[in-house]
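Figure 3 (text version): structure tokens given as input.
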């Protein structure tokens, strides 16, 4: 089974630290949390560290793994991290329930949510309606589990017809492979490749994407507390620029991104993660028509309004004003955000 790092390896942090030899005292410290253990798309920031993009933008960034989007939201809101990479849908729900601790998205990394139901052919589950009467496993903080109510509504599924089984994040795919649950919810880009690493043939894995079944919503973004953003606009601008530079470098040369993580984490599976990254691009999450035409980080206001409205209806919360959920104020000009052809 794929062994995922419990934290960004000390070697990767050492690699980052080695870039700060000149003018290090002038760099502004930033504590950054990922949404999950190291995966191919996280090479965006591994390259930003290795290639000194953060340093060139005045930042000394330390980066830790995450334990699910919901967990990252809580930790950033609590001040344990300055910036987080997490699902914007989890942010909308959290803000409604915790108005005094709300977060704001300032750079949209995923143009589409990879939230999905993942199962095996032997379960007999092939479409959303087939989930009735089955058990689904996921950590309680998992964003796809948090969003299941919206998925159920979009597909006329009675949520009460499904039984949820809670589990530690690292046991999710194992429990599906062992038949302890009928399906799991999660990012397809995570679960599919963890199952493959566990020995499950790709052709035996069934993915029911939320985005193809009534929930074409935005996915993960960079977020921070509004107070932090207001106090540190130069940090936010610099982080966005370094992220764009890291994304462009990764799209140009995916192998270099895998190698950058491997330098700090000897257990990192470069081939598996390159395949995972390619999958994210193929399904329109990290590379999309909207990004190709409008630049990385582009947000379609109508699509974001749909994302906000869907969350408000499902969770019976007042729809928040769009400017309390996200801002595009820190995006550089479009010409500086275009992905490689």
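Below: residues designed for each position.
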């Amino acid at each position: 089974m794929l062994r995922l790092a419990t934290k960004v390896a000390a070697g990767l942090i050492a690699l980052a630290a080695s870039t700060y030899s000149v003018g290090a005292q002038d760099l502004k410290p930033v504590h950054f949390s990922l949404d999950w253990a190291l995966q191919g798309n996280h090479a965006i920031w591994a390259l930003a560290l290795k290639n000194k993009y953060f340093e060139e933008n005045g930042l000394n960034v330390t980066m830790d793994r995450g334990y699910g989007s919901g967990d990252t939201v809580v930790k950033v809101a609590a001040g344990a991290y300055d910036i987080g990479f997490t699902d914007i849908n989890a942010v909308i729900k959290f803000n409604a329930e915790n108005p005094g601790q709300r977060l704001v998205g300032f750079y949209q990394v995923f143009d589409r949510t990879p939230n999905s139901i993942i199962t095996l052919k032997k379960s007999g589950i092939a479409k959303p309606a087939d989930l009735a009467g089955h058990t689904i496993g996921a950590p309680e903080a998992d964003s796809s589990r948090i969003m299941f109510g919206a998925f159920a509504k979009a597909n006329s599924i009675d949520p009460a017809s499904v039984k949820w089984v809670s589990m530690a994040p690292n046991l999710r795919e194992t429990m599906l492979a062992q038949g302890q649950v009928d399906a799991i919810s999660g990012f397809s880009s995570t679960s599919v490749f963890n199952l493959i690493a566990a020995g499950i043939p790709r052709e035996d894995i069934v993915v029911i994407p939320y985005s193809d079944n009534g929930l074409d919503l935005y996915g993960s973004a960079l977020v921070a507390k509004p107070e932090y953003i207001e106090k540190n606009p130069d940090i936010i601008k610099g982080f966005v620029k370094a992220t764009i530079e890291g994304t462009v470098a990764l799209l140009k040369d995916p192998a270099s991104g895998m190698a950058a993580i491997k330098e700090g984490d000897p257990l990192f599976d470069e081939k598996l993660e390159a395949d995972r990254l390619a999958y994210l691009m193929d399904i329109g999450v990290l590379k999309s028509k909207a990004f190709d035409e409008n630049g990385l980080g582009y947000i379609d206001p109508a699509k974001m309004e749909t994302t906000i409205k869907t969350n408000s209806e499902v969770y019976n919360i007042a729809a928040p004003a769009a400017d309390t959920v996200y801002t595009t104020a820190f995006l550089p000009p479009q010409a500086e955000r275009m992905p490689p052809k």
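The longest strand covers residues 28-33.
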